[in-house]
Every structure is written in C-alpha cells, then in structure tokens.
Amino acid sequence: MMQTGKEPDPINSIRHITDPTDPDRQWLVDYGKGNKPDATAAEAALRFARINDPNNARDIAPYLARLDDLADQVRSDLAALLASSGHDTVASDKVVPDNNTLAPETLAQASIEQIVSILQSVIPTLHGFQGDAENYDDMENADLMKVMDRKRGLPVALAMLYIHVARRCDFTITGIDFPGHFLLRLQSNGKRRMIDPFHGGIALGPAELRELLKSFSGLDAELEPRHYCESSDVSILLRLQNNIKVRALRAGELTHATRIIEHSLLIAPDHEGLWHQLGALYARLNEDHKALGAFEQFVDLCEDPLHRTRIEAVIEELRDRLGLDVLCHTDGRAKTKAPAVTDDDSLKNDAKDNAPIPLYPNLMSVTNTTNASDTPSSSDH
After folding, report:
1. Which range has the worst mean pLDDT, 142-151, 198-207, 221-230, 331-340?
2. Are strands 152-153 and 172-176 parallel, antiparallel or unpaired?
3. Does residue 206 contact residue 223 with C-beta atoms inside 8 Å?
4. Comparing C-alpha atoms, which of 60, 37, 64, 41 is closest to residue 50?
C-alpha cells in the first residue's frame, strides 16, 4: 500500500517534549536548565509523580510541607541534642526565635555522628520510611508521592527524602552511584559517612561497603575510587525515572514507558541516549513520524560515528517507509515494523535498579528479560 501526500515535519511531532505548555512540565524544563536553584530533587520528583500518572491530579504542596516538616524536626532535635551535650546553646543570639532551634552557625558544630543519629531517629525510626524489600519491583516504589504515602520505596526514592532534609538543614550530602545500591555520603567538620537510605539510614564503614560490593560485583572485587562517583540531582531524577521505565517495559506497558522517557527529557534534553530509547519505542508503537524526529535528535547529539551511522541508516529506512512503503494490518490500518535500532547486548544493565541510563538499550532484551540484579537479594544485602 502506498502512502501519498506531504508528511508532517517529524520534529514538530515531538516538539511537545521540549516546548511544553503544562505548568509542571515547564517547571521541570526550568529545573533542568538550573533556573530553580532553591528547589530540591524531591520537589522535581513530586512533579514527575504527578505527570507520570495521567490520572494523578494531586496537589504537591502537602507533600512539600511534609518534607519541610521533616527538616524542621531534624533541626529541632539536633538543637536539643547539642544543648544536652554542652554546646553554647543557651545564648539568646544562638537561637532562632520562630522555631526555638539553633542558628546555622551553631548547628554547624554538630559532629557527623550526631547528624547521622538524628537523621536515623527522625526519618526511618519516628516517621517509618524504609526500603520495600517485600515488594521491591512494585512501580509505586519509584513514585515519590506514593513512597511518602506508603513510607516504603527504592533506595534512590528514599534518598531524596534525606537529601531534601539535609539541604534544608545546610548539611552537605551527595548521592553516590555505588555498584548495585544507591547510597548517600554525608559530610560535616571534615568527616564523611556513607549511609544507606534503604536500610534505615545506617552508616556503612569500609568493611560493610566491601561486603556490599562483593555481593554485587563478585568476591574478587575491591573498593576503588570509581565506586564513589557522585551523582548530580538531575542524574538521581533520571535514575528514578529509569526505574519506572524498566518496570513498565517488563509489564509490556510500552506507552507508559514512552511517556516516562518523554518526561525525563524535560530535564535532560541533550541526553542522546534518551532520544535513542524514545525513537525505538515510538517505532515499536508504530508512530514513525515521532520515531523519525527522536532519531534525528539523537543523530544531532551523538558524537560516536559508529552509532550515528547506524541510526542514520534507520532514519533513511523510516523516511522511505513513510513516503513509499507502509505495511498494513489485516484491518487496513498502517503498520510499521520497528527498526532494528541496536543489537548491543551490553545494555542489559538497563534493567538494573541503580544503573545509570545506558545510551543504547536493547529494548527487546529489557522487555523480555528480568535481570536478577534488580532484586533486593542481589543489590540490597
């Protein structure tokens, strides 16, 4: 069957991704550009939670208030702890009048052990936020609204609570891409502690980190500086989105997975791998014009000549098919055969809970394969 007539501009077919009109999407675009310096990743994650689910019209304000309440409680409890340990907290100029907590310069005197202890007592102990080991693959574990409702979640989702609280309290905290398990590094007064948000915020020393590494990477693995790579807030958010995408693919929910990638591009429009994944999924969904637009975006961004050449061939095939040769369903509807966008099996790591988003995923292997590394038994011991 031949298709005639002028085809729409493929870039126009995907323009809604990078030029949104919805307030939440525009907020995320601004966040990705660095125009929301006071916002934490948790606020961005709440907005993702709202737009990822088309039926979710919940207000994020109560969730943000709860996050700030956690920070206020940590600040207040730390002030009480410092007072009981003999710091000069009785002076009136050291007290913040509106909440009877200590001024920032006094809070800065807290030891790393005291900060860890208060975070543990407030977030997991008092408020009950823990990792969901029983239903680890539940998609709700990566939705921050539902994580806050259920008080259960994935390591990277729970980490956002700690990061929000710590930054509101002016603590220095960083996400760490530790192999197989997302961790946090807290710094204070020249000391550092690695903490595990999935297991009650426990502090992990070298011995525990070595055991965790070996459980994931094998008995011959040893700790190296590369195992402590810091993760930016945008990378943490992409990791959270990736968890949802992987679970959607496993469930065969291609439309949902596509929507998650579209939303991820709001904060990372220059992420070539996301455009590649999106093009592949559009093609699987028989949306060739969108696939063409996504692949063209990928080629514009890709600096690897081999991958660029391969996708340029896919683009040529899509152009030919759109203009000349369109296969048909038995009911007469246009049908597009998804292009063989990659045969790179090295990207099965896409199914790993804490793996960075790979650049060239094998979507068929992700859809049809369950990777054991995405289970608590292999990544959370």
Report:
1. 331-340
2. unpaired
3. yes
4. 60
Res 9: pLDDT:
65
Beta strand 130-131 with 101-102 is unpaired
Residue with structure tokens 């998804």?
Answer: 338
Q: Please return the burial class of 248, using the count of CB atoms within 10 Å of its CB with bins 0-12, 13-18 and 19+.
A: buried
Query: Phi and psi for 21 in degrees, rounded to 5?
Result: -110, -20
Quote the number of domains for the chain. Answer: 2
**CB-CB contact of 357 with 350 (8 Å):** yes
pTM for this model (two decimals)? 0.81
Report the CATH number at residue 243.
1.25.40.10
CB half-sphere exposure, 177, CA atoms < 13 A: 18
Q: State the chain's maximal CA–CA distance in angstroms.
A: 84
- Taken in order 336, 20, 237, 146, is the CA torsion positive or negative? negative
Note down the domain range covering 128. Answer: 40-231
- Kindly state the average pLDDT of the residues 278-290: 94
- Start-to-end CA span in the chain (Å): 56
User: Domain end: 231, 263, 281, which one?
Assistant: 231
The arithmetic mean of pLDDT across residues 137-143, rounded, is 95
Distance (Å, whole) CA 177 – CA 198: 14
Calpha distance 286→355 (Å, rounded): 29
Average pLDDT of span 338-347 = 38
